[in-house]
Amino acid sequence: MSLRSKRVVFEKVFAEFRQDLEKMFNFSGLDRVSGMKMYQYPFKSRLLYKLVYDMCTAAPRPHTEKLFNAIADFLNDYTIQIRESILDHDDVVSAYAREWKHYSLAAGYSSMMCEYLNKLLVNGTKDNKSRGMVDKKTTVQGGNYRRQTVQALAYNIWKKQIVYTIKEKNSDRFMRQIFELIRRDRDGEDKVPDIVSDAIMSLVELTEHPLSLYIEEFEKPYLVHTRRYYERESATASQRLDEEVTRNSKYCHKSSHDTVIKECETQYVAAHQTRIQGEFGAMISNERYEDCTMAYTLLSRIPDGVNPLLEIFERYITNIGNGLIIRMGNSIAKDPREYVEFLLDHHSKYLTVCQKVFVNDAAFVAAVDKAFRTIVNDVTINPVAHSPEVMARYCDVLLKKTHKGGWSEQEVEDKLNRMIILFKYIEDKDVFQKFYSRMLAKRLIYGNSASEEAEANMISRLKVSYKYYE
C-alpha cells in the first residue's frame, strides 16, 4: 500500500467504503460463526484499510472529519432501521439482544478497519499535538459528535437511537419487558432466558463511564421493582394470615386455634421463606428498612425463620466495619480518633436499626455484638488496627492537656463514656491495661494530664467494666 498522499474524490471513495460497511453491519457475505474473521476474502480487510487511509491523507486537504461524520450519518440511519425492526417484534428483549450481538461485532470490526482514522481523531496529527490542539471533548468539525473511535461512536449512537429513544418515545417497552420477565421468573411462571442477561449486559458495554448507564437504566428501576414486589408479597402474606385468624375464631373450637394458626403460618410463610431470605441482604445494604421489618415480621412466625436473617445482618455489619478499617490503612497509627469514632458511630447506627426495625429483638442485638467482637479483634484485616493499643491511645489523646480536638470537659467525658462501649468487645483486656497504664504514667510524670478528676473517672469506669466482663 502506497503511503503517499493523493487526490481522491471523497463521495466516490466513501460510496465504495459505505457498501462494505453495509455488508459488515448486515452480515451480508460474512461468516457469522467465526466472529471477527468475518470477511470471506482476506484481501478485503487490506482494501478497506487502504480506503480509510486514502481519505484521511488526501491531497491537498485530508477528509478526516468528513469521513468521521459520514460514518456517523450511516450509523444513525442504520440504527433507526434496527430500532424499527426491534419494535416490530412482540418479544422486544430477544430482538434487541440479537441485534446488539451483531451490531457490537460489526462495530468492533469496522473500528479496526478505521484504525488510522481513530488515531487521527483521538491522538491528533503530529502537527496538532505539538501545538496542543487535540481536545477529545471537542465536536468534530461539521458534525454533532466529539472526537472518539469509530467503535465508541457506534456505541453512543446505539445508546441514543435505540436505548434512549425506545425509553422516551416507545413507552420504555424494552425495560418494561425485562422487568415483566423477571417478575414471571419470581412467580415461578417462566424461567428467564439467557438472552435477557445479554440484553442487560449491553448497558454495561455501551458506556465509557463504568456502569453509569447500567445503574441509571437498569439497577435503579430494578431496585424499585424489587421493593414493590416484596412489599406486595409481604402485605399479601400478612393479610392472608390475619384472615385465617378470623376464620379460625369463627369455625374452630378454641382448643384448635393455636394448632391451626401455626399450620397456616408454617405453610404460607414457608412457601416464600427462601425468596424473602434471599432478598434480605439487598434490603439491608440499600437501607430498605420497612421491607426488613416486613421480612422479620413474617419469618418470625415460623420456627427458626429469622436465623438466616441474623447471619446476613451480622455478616453485613462485619463487612462494612472491616472494609473501612482496611481503607484507613496506616492513618490509624497516626491518629486513633477516626478508627474509634467510626466504630462508635457504626455501633450506634445498627443498635438503632435493631430497636426501630427489629423491635429490639435480643437476637439481633446479639448479632451486633458478635459482629463488633469480630471487627475489634481481627487484626488480620489491618495489622495497624490493634484495638487494645489503639483504644488506649484514644484515651491518651482525650486525657492529655494538649489534645487537639478543642473539646470541653463534658465532651471529653462523653467520649470516654462511649469508648467503654467498644472496650467490652476487646478479648485481650490485659493488653489494653498494659498500654493504658504506660500512657497514664507518662501523663502523670510529665504533668500532661488534663484533669485529675477525668483520670479518676476513667479508672473507675475501667474497674467497673473489668469486673462486669470478667
TrEMBL record:
Residue span(s) of domain Cullin family profile: 386-463
List the molecular function annotations (GO) for this entry.
ubiquitin protein ligase binding
Q: Which UniProt keywords apply?
A: Isopeptide bond, Ubl conjugation, Ubl conjugation pathway
Domain of life, per the record?
Eukaryota
Pathway per its UniProt entry is:
Protein modification; protein ubiquitination
Q: Which PROSITE patterns match?
A: CULLIN_2
Gene3D superfamilies per UniProt:
Cullin Repeats
Q: Which GO terms describe its biological process?
A: ubiquitin-dependent protein catabolic process
Hey, which family's this protein in?
Belongs to the cullin family.
Protein name according to UniProt = Cullin-5
State the organism named in the record. Answer: Rhizophagus irregularis (strain DAOM 181602 / DAOM 197198 / MUCL 43194)
